[in-house]
Specification:
It is a single chain. This protein has 212 residues and is of the alpha+beta class. The protein is 46% helix and 11% strand. The chain is built from 8 helices and 4 strands. The chain has helices at 16-31, 43-47, 56-64, 67-80, 85-98, 105-114, 131-145, 177-191, and strands at 5-11, 34-40, 153-157, 163-167. It has a 4-stranded mixed β-sheet, with helices on both faces. Helix 5 crosses helix 6.
């Protein structure tokens, strides 16, 4: 049997579009020979140098809500290994997005309990000694794809063996079965063309979690 193709996926648990894409890539894992490896990125870090340019509501979200969850997640990774990230992200996303519990302390603490991680990780909510690791993880993903993107970032081995990274795909609802496979195949096809950068259209629908 051939080795599975590694797919590196950078996420911020607050982002509903990253959550949608993550559920799609897990569906792809069932129908294509891939293995997802999870990494943390941060919308707060991504936007910290341009807060004055952002709408007030989004700026408040970044300043008030965005730091705590990623601090706890990076602490979980550092203290318990990268292998806990997939299940923790699933627990967080299910509560934050599907159940609409929001990204507050109680939600994150409950997600830790869901996956058997210690409540003491919540000590990192207001500040963490792992901020250098958080920023390094974020930078690793962004350096692969460029600055003018958001979450998620996905990286796969290209034809020459070097990683090929892209933002997205942004999709709603998350495709299932063969539809998930077709989107995966098409995404890799366009992203692997030398000189290709972007296909985009205006979003006319918000995240649809009904099939998750």
């Amino acid at each position: 049997m051939s080795e599975k193709t590694p797919v590196d996926f950078w996420f911020d648990p607050l982002c509903p579009w990253a959550w949608m894409t993550s559920r799609w890539v897990l569906e792809v894992e069932k129908v294509r020979d891939i293995e997802v490896r999870w990494h943390v990125m941060s919308l707060a870090v991504l936007n910290e140098d341009k807060l004055d340019e952002l709408p007030a509501e989004y700026r408040e979200m970044l300043e008030v809500k965005a730091w705590g969850p990623v601090r706890v997640v990076i602490a979980a990774q550092q203290e318990h290994g990268a292998e806990v990230l997939g299940d923790l992200y699933t627990a967080l996303g299910t509560r934050i997005h599907n159940r609409e519990e929001g990204p507050g302390r109680e939600t994150v603490a409950a997600a830790l309990k869901d996956v058997g991680l210690p409540e003491s990780l919540m000590d990192h909510w207001d500040g963490t000694p792992y901020e250098p690791q958080l920023r390094a993880s974020h930078k690793e993903g962004i350096d692969k794809v460029g600055q003018e993107v958001g979450t998620p970032v996905i990286a796969v081995p290209g034809a020459d063996g070097e990683q090929l990274a892209f933002f997205g795909p942004v999709v709603t609802p998350a495709p299932k079965g063969e539809d998930a496979a077709k989107l995966w195949d098409g995404t890799l096809a366009v992203a692997s063309v030398p000189g290709f950068y972007e296909i985009k259209r205006t979003r006319t629908k918000g995240p649809d979690f009904s099939n998750l």
